[in-house]
Design goal:
Blueprint lengths: L2 H11 L42 E5 L5 H19 L3 E5 L3 H9 L5 E3 L2 H10 L4 E9 L5 E9 L14 E4 L5 H13 L12 E4 L3 H9 L5 E6 L13 H7 L8 E6 L3 E2 L2 E5 L4 H17 L1 H8 L3 E6 L6 H17 L1
Parallel strand pairs: 1-2, 1-3, 6-7, 6-8
Antiparallel strand pairs: 3-11, 4-11, 4-12, 5-8, 5-9, 5-10
Helix pairs in contact: 2-9, 3-4, 4-10, 8-9
Length: about 325
């Protein structure tokens, strides 16, 4: 078990009493990474694998309105198409499950997934997806956190004051917006089912939608993701809060964070396992080299500063697979 997995596992068990430390790519030795001298953008040109992959279909998970997602990813799509000479299409799903189902049905070749969505897709396809790259933030970390957000004028300043209040989850396949907060809150003695601690819970339909629901007083609180690095007044360095601030949808003075999770490993760029090996190698190299050769595009799709990425392996997400299995078992017991 790597240091990162021990650290995350320790967070789930709440073994560490001190403030969480961020996981860094240096804690994954022996992996290819953007900073390696031999990682360069593939030369443009059609590859032999193109005969087996006549079109490259990239899935974009929900959580942000479709127009913004397509706008952010269009330069990325165009660069893939230019580099490999294969028509490339973007497929924005209305929720996380849409991308997971697209991979399972072989209607998508690859997608960026959160840890929980990757684990769910891996279980749904019996190992039919594999991770290629973990995105690395501008400070070198490869983790983020879940935060519980309330209105600044709500009078709620701590988790205890959320007793009997309403809470919006982001999406059932979201790591920071569902899986991790449920696990960690339960381990703090907070019953996460309606009526146990919170008066009402529900799904907002995405991270952006959850914050909007809180601002519009449809829920007392929501869970979303943030880096907790950088300027709090700007929504920190990256994450949903920062993206909403940048788009003029949110002023941080209007909200308050009252709970923060332990570090969560960044999700991977994942590909179908049945794709040609050369395709997978090319896409991994393309993604690793992106921040070097096209930093603006890399930052657009990362929604914040990024140093690039590090090679991902399935073992990095085994803990999330186990959590998904436990969550599924708990649902069966409740029914």
């Amino acid at each position: 078990m790597t240091m990162i997995r021990r650290r995350i596992l320790g967070g789930l068990a709440f073994a560490a009493a001190s403030a969480p430390m961020l996981a860094h790519a240096q804690e994954l030795p022996g992996r290819r990474r953007t900073q390696d001298a031999d990682v360069t953008m593939p030369e443009p040109g059609r590859r032999p694998w193109a005969d087996q992959v006549p079109v490259i279909r990239y899935g974009i998970m929900g959580g942000e309105n479709e127009a913004d997602r397509l706008g952010r990813f269009e330069p990325y799509r165009a660069l893939i198409e230019h580099t490999f000479g294969v028509p490339t299409r973007l497929f924005p799903a209305s929720d996380y499950a849409g991308v997971m189902q697209g991979l399972s049905a072989k209607q998508l070749e690859f997608a960026a997934l959160g840890p929980s969505a990757y684990a769910g897709a891996w279980l749904d396809t019996n190992g039919g997806v594999e991770p290629l790259v973990i995105v690395q933030q501008g400070d070198g970390s490869i983790s983020y956190v879940s935060v519980l957000v309330v209105r600044a004028d709500s009078g709620i300043t701590n988790l205890e004051q959320m007793r009997g209040k309403s809470l919006a989850w982001a999406d059932p396949n979201s790591t920071s917006g569902y899986l991790i907060p449920r696990f960690q809150l339960r381990r703090q003695g907070v019953g996460v089912e309606p009526g146990q601690y919170f008066g009402r819970t529900g799904f907002a339909g995405g991270h952006e939608q959850g914050v909007v629901a809180v601002l519009q007083r449809q829920y007392d609180a929501c869970v979303t993701h943030a880096s907790t690095l950088g300027d709090p007044a700007q929504g920190y360095s990256r994450g949903n809060l920062r993206a909403m601030v940048d788009k003029g949808m949110l002023r941080m003075s209007d909200v308050r964070i009252i709970w923060t999770s332990e570090p969560i490993m960044n999700g991977p760029l994942a590909v179908r396992s049945d794709m040609p090996a050369a395709f997978k190698r090319d896409m991994q190299t393309f993604q690793l080299a992106l921040a070097k050769s096209h930093p603006d595009i890399a930052q657009q799709i990362a929604r914040g500063a990024t140093l690039g990425g590090v090679e991902a392996r399935h073992e990095d997400y085994e803990l999330f697979v186990e959590m998904r299995r436990e969550e599924a078992a708990a649902r069966r017991r409740r029914s």
